[in-house]
Amino acid sequence: MGEVRVSPLRRSEFYCFPQTPNFPIKYILLKGRILGIKQKAFDDARKEFELWKSADLRGAYLQLREEAYREAQTDLQRWKIEQEDKIRSDALQRSNSVRIGKSFEQLIPVKIAENLGSDLEDFRFLGSPVDFLVFRGLSAGNPLEVIFLEIKSSSNAQLTEREKLIKQLIESKKVNFMVYRNEI
Question: Per the domain annotation, does 10 fall within a domain?
């Protein structure tokens, strides 16, 4: 046989059976080339679609995140405005309670002195960790006892942890009297 030469097909050869003996080879080569081009086009289209999809998803994610953040900020601002009066009122009430309590602590020794049969001169204000030390009978020259006095301004007020520890020490008689002399 002779040499096989592949030449570009003419339109007339493509649509009807040509009368040349090389037609099956040209057809197979052309068909393979077309399939290769189709596959490459499909692969390129899939890559482009995946790139577009990932970029689009990332953009949508960022947009949703930004919208959620703005919405959360708006909700927070709305909550702050709604709660500000309540917070201020609560703070004012607490402040007033503290002031009343402090004033009560300063005035209550008058009432307690009457109940103990003691003089106001027997009271020494400390403030912390207990409010007063009372040297009952000291002003009359006849000391009877030393009282650690913690004053609470409401019936449901509890001792703090430090106050509870001080109370335990006193009740377990872990109280001492010391003299310190500074001899320089």
Answer: no
pTM: 0.45
Average pLDDT of the residues of the chain: 81
Whether 108 is covered by a domain: the verdict is: yes
User: What's at 179, amino acid-wise?
Assistant: V
Q: Identify whether 20 is part of a domain.
A: no
Q: Residue 37 carries which side chain, given as an amino acid letter?
A: I
Has residue 179 been placed in a domain? Answer: no
Tens-place pLDDT, residues 109-163: 778 888 877 888 888 888 888 888 899 888 888 888 899 988 877 777 788 899 9
Q: Which residues contact 26 (CB under 8 A, 6 or more apart)?
A: 6, 7, 9
Gyration radius of the chain's alpha carbons: 49
C-alpha to C-alpha distances, 128 to 4, 30, 150, nearest whole angstrom: 112, 101, 9
DSSP 39-80: HHHHHHHHHHHHHHHHHHHHHHHHHHHHHHHHHHHHHHHHHH
* Rounded Cα distance, 64 and 142, in Å: 81
Question: Which structural domain, as residue segments, surrounds residue 135?
Answer: 85-171
Say what the pLDDT of residue 70 is. 92
Output the six-digit token pair for 38.
Answer: 């189709």
Amino acid symbol at 150:
E
Can you tell me which residue has the tokens 């009297």? 177
Element (H, E) at 111: helix 23-116
